[in-house]
Amino acid sequence: MVSDTTSVPYAGPQTFTGNRALDLEEGLLFEIGRTEVTGVDVPEPAPFKDRLGGHARTAPLELPGLSEPEAMRHYVRLSRMNYGIDSGLFPLGSCTMKHNPRLNEKMARLPGFADVHPLQPLSTVQGALGLMGELSRYLLELTGMQAVALQPKAGAHGELCGMMAIKAAHEASGSKRHVVLVPESAHGTNPATAALIGYEVRSIPARADGTVDPEAVKAALGPEVAALMLTNPNTCGLFERDVVAIAEAVHAAGAYFYSDGANFNAILGKVRIADLGVDAMHINLHKTFSTPHGGGGPGAGPVVLSAALAPFAPVPALVATADGLALVEDQGADGAQQALGRMSAFHGQMGMFVRALSWMLSHGADGMRQASEDAVLSANYIRACLMDVMSAPFAERPAMHEALFDDAWLAGTGISTLDVAKALIDEGYHPMTVYFPLVVHGAMLIEPTESESKASLDLFIAALRDLALAAKAGDKARFLGAPYYAPRRRLDETRAARAPVLRWVKPEPIPDAAE
Question: SS3 for 142?
Answer without folding.
Answer: helix
